[in-house]
């Protein structure tokens, strides 16, 4: 009983952290129920029940139908003066399109491309996006030279391509499998059904938490590896991920080709997904500890997909 009480207290503590950690998710994964996400809830306007619909162009939100009053004459007897009769009707529904984009940071765009996965990012040119929002233990980040990054994205029918250049004054990674977040590593949060569950603020079976570690590039011990914490049906090392990285004079690189099957998504032009990429940092050699986390959006909360950003696949 004492052990159970301590476990519940520990989980409650982890859940209270805004940023959350991959470790918390790994621990709680088996306790979560993966149920299908609900659709966008219907709404009631002025007593009239309306159902928003979903179209390929985005969410459609119905607006209130105002009451419109009209008058018509009615005779009340032979030779009588007509008296107006007031009637009220409701105007037609007006629908407005809402773009499928979270209000969390800039829209990330992935051009159609391929990549040679070798850890050399020169073929990517200038990486267009930044990872610089401290979302876990900001007190442990001394500045941009301690933990900051830029990244780029690409796609084809088989893979989502990711390139990250991390600035880090001390590289530490001694962990494997579900513990890779306790060393220098990358985390991706991916919502494969952005259109179907835009307003759902809890994790479900189409939300993926995936980690990338380049291990020890000098000795390959540990080796470069990927790991999925959530959902449990995909948990473990995903098949088909191509991953490489290199140590640099001021940090390290990560280059990966992630199969769409690992993300429960698909490579098609104009597809949109919920997306956050983060960098875990450990600056203490020979230890296993997630000392800080920076993310591509400042709103990132592990358990709330509505706090993530948006990725669109350009034609």
Key words describing this protein structure:
21 strands, Immunoglobulin-like, mainly beta, eight-stranded mixed β-sheet, globular, disordered N terminus
Q: What would you note in describing this structure?
A:
With 315 residues, this protein is mostly beta strands. The protein folds into 2 domains: 52-98, no CATH class; 101-313, Immunoglobulin-like (Sandwich), CATH 2.60.40.1190. 8% of the residues lie in helices and 36% in strands. The chain contains 3 helices and 21 strands. It has helices at 2-15, 22-28, 260-263, and strands spanning 43-45, 48-50, 54-55, 58-62, 67-74, 83-90, 95-98, 108-110, 129-131, 133-136, 148-155, 159-167, 185-191, 207-213, 225-230, 242-244, 247-248, 251-259, 272-281, 292-295, 309-313. Strands 8, 10, 13, 14, 15, 19, 20 and 21 form an 8-stranded mixed sheet that branches. A hairpin with a 2-residue loop joins strand 1 and strand 2. Residues 1-85 and 90-98 have low confidence and may be disordered.
Radius of gyration: 25 Å
Distance between the termini: 57 Å
Query: Strand-and-helix sequence, N→C?
Result: HHEEEEEEEEEEEEEEEEEEHEEE
CATH class of the largest domain: Mainly Beta
Major beta sheet summary = 8 strands, mixed
Helix content: under 10%
Low-confidence stretches: 1-85, 90-98
Please tell me what the overall shape is: globular
On the 0 to 100 scale, the average pLDDT is 79
Q: What is the domain total for the residues? A: 2
Number of beta-strand segments: 21
Which structural class fits the helix and strand makeup? mainly beta
């Amino acid at each position: 009983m004492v052990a159970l009480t301590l476990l519940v207290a520990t989980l409650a503590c982890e859940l209270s952290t805004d940023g959350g950690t991959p470790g918390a998710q790994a621990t709680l994964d088996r306790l979560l129920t993966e149920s299908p996400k609900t659709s966008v809830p219907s709404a009631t306007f002025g007593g009239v029940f309306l159902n928003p619909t979903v179209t390929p162009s985005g969410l459609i939100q119905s607006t209130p139908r105002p009451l419109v009053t009209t008058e018509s004459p009615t005779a009340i007897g032979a030779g009588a003066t007509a008296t107006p009769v007031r009637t009220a009707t409701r105007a037609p529904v007006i629908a407005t399109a809402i773009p499928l984009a979270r209000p969390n940071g800039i829209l990330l765009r992935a051009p159609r491309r391929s990549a040679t996965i070798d850890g050399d990012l020169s073929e990517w040119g200038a990486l267009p996006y930044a990872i610089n929002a401290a979302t876990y233990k900001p007190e442990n980040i001394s500045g941009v030279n301690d933990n900051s990054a830029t990244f780029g994205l690409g796609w084809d029918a088989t893979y989502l391509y990711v390139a990250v250049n991390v600035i880090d004054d001390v590289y530490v990674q001694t962990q494997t499998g579900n513990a890779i977040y306790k060393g220098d590593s990358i985390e991706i949060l991916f919502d494969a059904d952005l259109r179907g569950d835009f307003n759902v603020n809890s994790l479900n079976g189409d939300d993926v938490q995936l980690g990338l570690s380049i291990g020890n590039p000098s000795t390959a011990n540990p080796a470069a590896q990927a790991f999925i914490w959530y959902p449990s049906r995909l948990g473990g090392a995903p098949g088909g991920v191509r991953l490489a990285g290199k140590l640099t004079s001021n940090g390290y690189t990560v280059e990966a080709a992630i199969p769409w099957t690992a993300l429960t998504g698909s490579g098609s032009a104009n597809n949109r997904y919920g997306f956050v990429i983060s960098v875990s940092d450990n600056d203490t050699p020979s230890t296993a500890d997630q000392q800080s986390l920076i993310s591509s959006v400042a709103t990132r909360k592990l358990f709330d997909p509505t706090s993530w950003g948006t990725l669109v696949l350009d034609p």
